[in-house]
Amino acid sequence: MAFRAGYGAETAMNRVGKRSGDFMRNRVSSVTLLIVVLLTACASGPPAPAWQGEAKSSLELSLDAYLRGDARVANAAFDRGRREIARSGRLDLLARAELMRCAAAVASTVFEPCAGFERLRADADASDRTYADYLMGRVRPQDVNLLAPAHRSLAAPGLEGEPALVALRAIDDPLSRLVALGVLFQGGRATPSAIALAVDTASEQGWRRALLAWLKVQLAVLEQAGDETAAGRVRRRIEAVAP
Asked: Can you give the pTM of this predicted structure?
Protein backbone atom coordinates (compact mmCIF):
# COMPACT_ATOMS: atom_id res chain seq x y z
CA MET A 1 0.00 0.00 0.00
CA ALA A 2 1.29 3.46 -0.87
CA PHE A 3 0.43 6.85 0.54
CA ARG A 4 -0.18 10.34 -0.82
CA ALA A 5 0.72 13.78 0.51
CA GLY A 6 -1.39 16.90 0.24
CA TYR A 7 0.11 20.28 -0.63
CA GLY A 8 1.41 22.61 2.11
CA ALA A 9 4.33 22.80 4.50
CA GLU A 10 4.64 19.59 6.47
CA THR A 11 0.99 18.72 5.88
CA ALA A 12 1.76 15.61 3.88
CA MET A 13 0.67 13.27 6.62
CA ASN A 14 -2.84 14.69 6.56
CA ARG A 15 -3.72 12.66 3.50
CA VAL A 16 -1.89 9.44 4.23
CA GLY A 17 -3.61 6.54 2.56
CA LYS A 18 -5.18 8.42 -0.35
CA ARG A 19 -4.08 7.13 -3.76
CA SER A 20 -3.57 9.28 -6.80
CA GLY A 21 -5.70 7.45 -9.32
CA ASP A 22 -5.62 10.12 -12.00
CA PHE A 23 -1.92 10.43 -12.67
CA MET A 24 1.40 9.70 -11.03
CA ARG A 25 3.84 12.39 -10.01
CA ASN A 26 6.73 11.46 -12.25
CA ARG A 27 10.03 13.26 -12.06
CA VAL A 28 13.40 13.40 -10.36
CA SER A 29 16.85 14.80 -10.95
CA SER A 30 20.06 15.19 -8.98
CA VAL A 31 19.93 18.33 -6.85
CA THR A 32 23.64 18.18 -6.16
CA LEU A 33 24.25 17.90 -9.89
CA LEU A 34 22.28 21.12 -10.37
CA ILE A 35 24.75 22.92 -8.14
CA VAL A 36 27.69 21.52 -10.09
CA VAL A 37 26.07 22.52 -13.37
CA LEU A 38 25.42 25.96 -11.95
CA LEU A 39 29.16 26.38 -11.50
CA THR A 40 30.35 24.72 -14.69
CA ALA A 41 27.65 25.91 -17.09
CA CYS A 42 29.56 29.08 -17.74
CA ALA A 43 33.13 27.90 -17.09
CA SER A 44 35.06 26.96 -20.24
CA GLY A 45 38.71 26.38 -19.51
CA PRO A 46 40.13 29.44 -17.72
CA PRO A 47 39.79 29.73 -13.93
CA ALA A 48 36.18 30.26 -12.96
CA PRO A 49 35.20 33.83 -12.04
CA ALA A 50 34.90 34.48 -8.33
CA TRP A 51 31.12 34.90 -8.46
CA GLN A 52 30.68 31.29 -9.58
CA GLY A 53 32.52 29.88 -6.60
CA GLU A 54 30.73 32.23 -4.23
CA ALA A 55 27.36 31.28 -5.69
CA LYS A 56 28.08 27.57 -5.47
CA SER A 57 29.27 27.65 -1.85
CA SER A 58 26.39 29.90 -0.79
CA LEU A 59 23.75 27.67 -2.39
CA GLU A 60 25.28 24.55 -0.87
CA LEU A 61 25.18 26.19 2.55
CA SER A 62 21.59 27.31 1.96
CA LEU A 63 20.42 23.82 1.04
CA ASP A 64 22.13 22.21 4.02
CA ALA A 65 20.81 24.84 6.43
CA TYR A 66 17.28 24.44 5.09
CA LEU A 67 17.36 20.68 5.54
CA ARG A 68 18.77 21.13 9.05
CA GLY A 69 15.95 23.49 9.90
CA ASP A 70 17.99 26.70 10.21
CA ALA A 71 15.78 29.05 8.22
CA ARG A 72 17.78 32.18 9.05
CA VAL A 73 21.05 30.79 7.68
CA ALA A 74 19.28 29.15 4.74
CA ASN A 75 17.61 32.38 3.63
CA ALA A 76 20.69 34.53 4.12
CA ALA A 77 22.91 32.10 2.20
CA PHE A 78 20.40 31.77 -0.62
CA ASP A 79 20.08 35.54 -0.96
CA ARG A 80 23.87 35.83 -1.07
CA GLY A 81 24.14 33.14 -3.74
CA ARG A 82 21.38 34.72 -5.77
CA ARG A 83 23.10 38.10 -5.64
CA GLU A 84 26.31 36.54 -6.93
CA ILE A 85 24.49 34.97 -9.86
CA ALA A 86 22.64 38.21 -10.57
CA ARG A 87 26.02 39.88 -11.12
CA SER A 88 26.30 37.83 -14.31
CA GLY A 89 22.83 38.65 -15.58
CA ARG A 90 22.30 34.92 -16.23
CA LEU A 91 18.55 34.46 -15.84
CA ASP A 92 18.82 30.75 -16.61
CA LEU A 93 21.13 30.28 -13.64
CA LEU A 94 18.87 32.33 -11.39
CA ALA A 95 16.03 30.01 -12.39
CA ARG A 96 18.18 26.98 -11.57
CA ALA A 97 18.97 28.37 -8.13
CA GLU A 98 15.26 28.77 -7.41
CA LEU A 99 14.71 25.23 -8.61
CA MET A 100 17.27 23.86 -6.17
CA ARG A 101 15.48 25.51 -3.28
CA CYS A 102 12.16 24.01 -4.38
CA ALA A 103 13.76 20.58 -4.67
CA ALA A 104 14.91 20.80 -1.05
CA ALA A 105 11.34 21.61 -0.05
CA VAL A 106 10.03 18.51 -1.83
CA ALA A 107 12.71 16.48 -0.05
CA SER A 108 11.14 17.72 3.20
CA THR A 109 7.55 16.90 2.14
CA VAL A 110 6.71 20.54 1.44
CA PHE A 111 4.67 20.52 -1.75
CA GLU A 112 4.07 24.08 -2.87
CA PRO A 113 4.24 25.92 -6.20
CA CYS A 114 7.80 26.86 -7.10
CA ALA A 115 6.97 30.54 -7.44
CA GLY A 116 10.55 31.78 -7.74
CA PHE A 117 11.24 29.49 -10.65
CA GLU A 118 7.93 30.15 -12.36
CA ARG A 119 8.77 33.84 -12.58
CA LEU A 120 11.85 32.84 -14.58
CA ARG A 121 10.47 29.80 -16.42
CA ALA A 122 10.71 31.48 -19.82
CA ASP A 123 14.46 31.97 -19.27
CA ALA A 124 15.18 28.42 -18.04
CA ASP A 125 16.48 25.66 -20.28
CA ALA A 126 14.35 22.67 -21.27
CA SER A 127 15.83 20.26 -18.72
CA ASP A 128 15.20 22.69 -15.87
CA ARG A 129 11.64 23.29 -17.01
CA THR A 130 11.10 19.53 -17.08
CA TYR A 131 12.57 19.15 -13.61
CA ALA A 132 10.28 21.90 -12.32
CA ASP A 133 7.31 20.11 -13.84
CA TYR A 134 8.54 16.93 -12.22
CA LEU A 135 8.60 18.59 -8.83
CA MET A 136 5.02 19.72 -9.37
CA GLY A 137 3.84 16.32 -10.62
CA ARG A 138 3.08 17.29 -14.19
CA VAL A 139 6.02 16.07 -16.28
CA ARG A 140 5.04 14.90 -19.75
CA PRO A 141 6.05 11.37 -20.84
CA GLN A 142 7.84 12.75 -23.88
CA ASP A 143 10.06 14.87 -21.61
CA VAL A 144 11.21 12.09 -19.28
CA ASN A 145 14.52 11.73 -21.13
CA LEU A 146 15.40 15.27 -20.06
CA LEU A 147 15.63 14.10 -16.45
CA ALA A 148 18.86 12.76 -14.96
CA PRO A 149 19.47 9.18 -16.21
CA ALA A 150 19.55 7.63 -12.74
CA HIS A 151 16.01 8.80 -12.06
CA ARG A 152 14.18 8.22 -15.32
CA SER A 153 12.89 4.85 -14.21
CA LEU A 154 11.19 6.50 -11.24
CA ALA A 155 9.26 8.68 -13.64
CA ALA A 156 7.58 5.67 -15.20
CA PRO A 157 3.86 5.59 -14.42
CA GLY A 158 2.98 2.84 -12.00
CA LEU A 159 6.49 2.21 -10.68
CA GLU A 160 6.09 1.51 -6.97
CA GLY A 161 6.65 -1.16 -4.37
CA GLU A 162 9.92 -3.12 -4.48
CA PRO A 163 10.98 -1.95 -7.98
CA ALA A 164 10.69 1.67 -6.85
CA LEU A 165 12.58 0.89 -3.65
CA VAL A 166 15.42 -0.66 -5.64
CA ALA A 167 15.58 2.43 -7.86
CA LEU A 168 15.60 4.71 -4.82
CA ARG A 169 18.41 2.82 -3.14
CA ALA A 170 20.46 3.11 -6.31
CA ILE A 171 20.54 6.91 -5.93
CA ASP A 172 23.79 7.64 -4.12
CA ASP A 173 23.26 11.33 -3.44
CA PRO A 174 21.16 11.60 -0.25
CA LEU A 175 19.42 14.84 -1.21
CA SER A 176 18.50 13.50 -4.63
CA ARG A 177 17.17 10.35 -2.98
CA LEU A 178 15.00 12.39 -0.64
CA VAL A 179 13.66 14.41 -3.56
CA ALA A 180 12.80 11.14 -5.30
CA LEU A 181 11.06 9.92 -2.18
CA GLY A 182 9.13 13.16 -1.93
CA VAL A 183 8.07 12.68 -5.53
CA LEU A 184 6.81 9.16 -4.88
CA PHE A 185 5.02 10.21 -1.70
CA GLN A 186 3.34 13.14 -3.38
CA GLY A 187 2.15 10.80 -6.13
CA GLY A 188 0.77 8.12 -3.84
CA ARG A 189 3.54 5.62 -4.52
CA ALA A 190 5.52 5.67 -1.27
CA THR A 191 5.22 2.40 0.62
CA PRO A 192 6.04 2.14 4.34
CA SER A 193 9.46 0.76 3.32
CA ALA A 194 10.10 3.80 1.13
CA ILE A 195 9.08 6.11 3.97
CA ALA A 196 11.46 4.26 6.28
CA LEU A 197 14.22 4.80 3.71
CA ALA A 198 13.47 8.52 3.73
CA VAL A 199 13.69 8.58 7.53
CA ASP A 200 17.00 6.72 7.45
CA THR A 201 18.43 8.96 4.74
CA ALA A 202 17.57 12.17 6.57
CA SER A 203 18.78 10.71 9.86
CA GLU A 204 22.17 9.74 8.45
CA GLN A 205 22.73 13.29 7.22
CA GLY A 206 21.52 14.97 10.40
CA TRP A 207 18.94 16.93 8.42
CA ARG A 208 16.57 17.75 11.25
CA ARG A 209 13.86 19.49 9.24
CA ALA A 210 13.65 16.71 6.67
CA LEU A 211 13.86 14.05 9.37
CA LEU A 212 11.01 15.53 11.37
CA ALA A 213 8.87 15.79 8.26
CA TRP A 214 9.41 12.14 7.35
CA LEU A 215 9.02 10.94 10.94
CA LYS A 216 5.62 12.62 11.04
CA VAL A 217 4.67 10.87 7.82
CA GLN A 218 5.86 7.57 9.27
CA LEU A 219 3.92 8.17 12.47
CA ALA A 220 0.72 8.82 10.54
CA VAL A 221 1.21 5.58 8.61
CA LEU A 222 1.78 3.56 11.78
CA GLU A 223 -1.17 5.13 13.55
CA GLN A 224 -3.38 4.36 10.61
CA ALA A 225 -2.17 0.76 10.67
CA GLY A 226 -2.87 0.53 14.40
CA ASP A 227 0.74 -0.34 15.28
CA GLU A 228 0.91 1.51 18.59
CA THR A 229 4.22 -0.01 19.66
CA ALA A 230 6.07 1.20 16.58
CA ALA A 231 4.18 4.50 16.66
CA GLY A 232 5.35 5.07 20.22
CA ARG A 233 8.96 4.64 19.16
CA VAL A 234 8.50 7.17 16.37
CA ARG A 235 6.89 9.65 18.77
CA ARG A 236 9.91 9.37 21.03
CA ARG A 237 12.21 10.01 18.09
CA ILE A 238 10.18 13.08 17.16
CA GLU A 239 10.44 14.37 20.71
CA ALA A 240 14.20 13.86 20.63
CA VAL A 241 14.68 15.58 17.27
CA ALA A 242 12.21 18.43 17.71
CA PRO A 243 13.73 21.73 18.94
From this structure: 0.83
